[in-house]
Write a structure and sequence with these properties.
The structure holds two protein chains of two kinds.
Chain A: E1 4-7, E2 10-13, E3 19-25, E4 31-37, E5 43-51, E6 54-57, E7 64-66, E8 76-78, E9 87-94, E10 105-107, E11 111-115
Parallel strand pairs in A: 2-11
Antiparallel strand pairs in A: 1-3, 3-8, 4-5, 4-9, 5-6, 7-8, 9-10, 9-11
Chain B: E1 3-5, E2 10-14, E3 19-21, E4 24-26, E5 32-38, E6 44-50, E7 56-58, E8 64-68, E9 73-78, E10 87-95, E11 101-104, E12 108-113
Parallel strand pairs in B: 2-12
Antiparallel strand pairs in B: 1-4, 3-9, 5-6, 5-10, 7-8, 8-9, 10-11, 10-12
The chains are: A mainly beta, B mainly beta.
Chain lengths: 116, 114
């Protein structure tokens, strides 16, 4: 059971380039989310999805796009990378079927992104 | 707005000493509360969670936390710290009004002296 898998683990981009961070989970979780982690700021929610075909913005969505065509995958797209997007990105999934919210989130290992 | 505050950015304790990491939350309803630990270069691992019932919850690795509604706190404790406990610790509250998103505190980095 792989859990939540993120690729790549490390990435260096030039300003203005675009890329997609991949996230896949094999636990059939409805809820998936992307966070960015910056020193002294904890984890901040970028986008989330409560099921296939449904996405919504978190607190820091600007510069990022997401889609959810399947239950398993939730890719995060950087449209035009900026140095301010240098961060560690975490994908997480949770079981929320039938409105259950009292469930833990499972996290991937993270993607360390540097934009130069 | 919902929020989580971890007042201590960095704490250093001696191995074998007791530990308490503070967490205060702001949330309008009964909160779902979590503590996660992150080792260097790793993802987050759940230590323990509180949803309802007994306000003292036990977690993995010998950690426990106590929910105090009157103080809006959910402090993490361990009676005797091991060198392997050195990591960053995050408190989080689950917001079930917004699809179940987690709101995280800023984190507390724990260093352990031999």
């Amino acid at each position: 059971n792989a859990g939540v898998t993120q690729t790549p683990k490390f990435q260096v981009l030039k300003t203005g380039q675009s890329m997609t961070l991949q996230c896949a989970q094999d636990m059939n979780h409805e809820y998936m989310s992307w966070y960015r982690q910056d020193p002294g700021m904890g984890l901040r929610l970028i986008h989330y999805s409560v099921g296939a075909g449904i996405t919504d913005q978190g607190e820091v969505p600007n510069g990022y796009n997401v889609s959810r065509s399947t239950t398993e995958d939730f890719p995060l797209r950087l449209l035009s990378a900026a140095p301010s997007q240098t961060s560690v990105y975490f994908c997480a999934s949770r079981y929320t079927k039938a409105g259950r919210m009292n469930t833990e989130a499972f996290f991937g290992q993270g993607t360390r992104l540097t934009v130069v | 707005a919902q929020s989580v505050t971890q007042p201590d950015i960095h704490i250093t304790v001696s191995e074998g000493a007791s530990l308490e990491l503070r967490c205060n939350y702001s949330y309008g309803a009964t909160p779902y509360l979590f503590w996660y630990v992150q080792s260097p270069g790793q993802g987050l691992q759940l230590l323990l969670k509180y949803f309802s019932g007994d306000t003292l919850v036990q977690g993995i690795k010998g950690f426990e936390a106590e929910f105090k509604r009157s103080q809006s706190s959910f402090n993490l404790r361990k009676p005797s710290v091991h060198w392997s406990d050195a990591a960053e610790y995050f408190c989080a509250v689950g917001d079930y009004n917004q699809g179940g998103k987690l709101i995280f505190g800023q984190g507390t980095e724990l260093s352990v002296k031999p």
